[in-house]
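Annex B.
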Amino acid sequence: MASAPSSLCQMCVVLFLALSLGRCSVEQMTWKQDAVIKNAIFHQDLLFTMTDRLSAIDCGRRCSQTENCVSFTFTRHSSSRGACRGHSSSLTSQTPSSTEPGTEAYCFVGKKVWLDPAEQQLQSDWVRKKCATDLDCPADNATCFRNMVCLCLPGYYYSHKGDNCVPECSPADLQTGFMDYPSGLLNSHVLHYVPSGVSLLQCQRYCTRDAVCRAITFVRSSGMCMTHHVTPLDADDVHVCWFPDMTPHFYSQLTCA
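Apple domain-containing protein: predicted structure tokens.
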């Protein structure tokens, strides 16, 4: 799919659409609503029209699945009905053909393919290496976690590119691999909570399919799952509670590019 320069859209509303690519990956599409173009209908480079029980998300999904679609308008007719029009060019370069109240314009910003957590492994000579002290873990900001294995300091992101540990990672650079901390518990800032019955992989999938999730806490014996948008590095915040030795809990944090 071709992409339109993000500068052509002034952000008002952002749509994140998760499209399944099969069993092991998901494609996240991002659209931004144009804050300038309002109540305008366009006919140039029209690819499709839809009218039914639609939302802006339905319209974005159809455009994402249509070859060459880079923009669309959505007209809300009622709380549950609307009209969608997809275009192969940026609407900012077109002259409106007519006006219709309640019409919003969106442009394509970008996409990212998220691999299933089971498919992205950490390729490193030192990660999970057996150790006795921090000196056995050569990377910056690495630690001998519980005097057993080399990991990044809790809250630091493992960087695939640098094979080291970094304190920050932008949303665009988050990967779907995880660094695991047996007995770790982050007991705050919960995005998603399942009291029982899920597997570790299912819990990690909840996180990778949430645009703001950074980490999970899991209990293997009960299948309890919590997802978080903070990490132990945020523990200076009085509302973030990090406990490194809380068996049977299990903390797992996303990695970085």
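The two ends are 23 Å apart (CA to CA). The chain has a mean pLDDT of 83. Further annotation is deferred to the next reporting cycle.
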